[in-house]
Amino acid sequence: MRIGIGYDVHALVEKRQLILGGVRIPYSQGLQGHSDADVLTHAAMDALLGACALGDIGKHFPDDDEKYRDISSMELLKEVMGLIGQKGLTIGNIDCIIIAQKPKLAPYIEDMRANLALAMKTDIANVSVKATTTEGLGFEGRGEGIGAQAVVLLLPVF
Ligand SMILES: Nc1ccn([C@@H]2O[C@H](COP(=O)(O)O)[C@@H](O)[C@H]2O)c(=O)n1
Ligand SMILES: C[C@@]1(CO)OP(=O)(O)OP(=O)(O)OC[C@H]1O
């Protein structure tokens, strides 16, 4: 078995959509990035790549490549899963946390889990997504950005 950790942060800005775990969340701001800036899916991908010692998402999907401009991070996740499969590995479980002062994410968590599970070809029971504020502290607490962390366990395909 292999374990991996992922962490990512994107800035909150005007005139961008807020997409987390492939879910479009109604909010006055969205995340800035070259792709759709889905910070949760980015943390999940970095955990998956890390578990296989395959580098990080910047290595696989460079942010100076026009091919990836505004791309759905769920599409990138599917590509990462192809690499995991080539290594003879599959998802054991993944646990993720989104660090965001606003908006309230609880209503969208189940849809995020479902999207991630579908892209990762695993049962939703293997996918945990949680959210926390920082009680107003730090850059997330000031509403300057949103962070996400993920830890994944990969198991051999039998
Ligand atoms: N953006 C967020 C942040 C948190 N939640 C939910 O609220 C609970 C309490 O948050 P604390 O930071 O005070 O621990 C948390 O456990 C989440 O369920 C949320 O929905 N959206
Ligand atoms: C996903 C990629 C590629 O479009 O761009 P961003 O959306 O800017 O995300 P980031 O986490 O900064 O780095 C990975 C990138 O190369």
Structural account:
The strands form two sheets. Strands 4-1-7-5-6 form a five-stranded mixed β-sheet. Strands 2-3 form a two-stranded antiparallel sheet. The two termini are 12 Å apart. The protein has helices at 39-51, 57-60, 73-86, 109-119, 138-141, and strands at residues 2-13, 18-20, 23-25, 30-31, 89-99, 127-132, 145-156. The chain contains five helices and seven strands, in the order ββββαααβαβαβ. The longest helix is centred in the middle third of the chain and has 14 residues, at 73-86. Helix 1 (39-51) runs parallel beside helix 3. Strand 2 and strand 3 (23-25) form a beta hairpin. 29% of the residues lie in helices and 31% in strands. It is globular, with a radius of gyration of 15 Å. It is of the alpha+beta class and 158 residues long. The chain has a single domain (2-156), classed as 2-Layer Sandwich (60s Ribosomal Protein L30, Chain: A), CATH 3.30.1330. The site of 2C-methyl-D-erythritol 2,4-cyclodiphosphate has 12 residues, from helix 2.
Features:
single chain, 158 residues, alpha+beta, 60s Ribosomal Protein L30, Chain: A, 5-stranded mixed beta sheet, two-stranded antiparallel sheet, 5 helices, 29% helix, globular, binds ligand L45E5XJ5, binds 2C-methyl-D-erythritol 2,4-cyclodiphosphate, isoprene biosynthesis, metal ion binding, MECDP_synthase, MECDP_synthase_CS
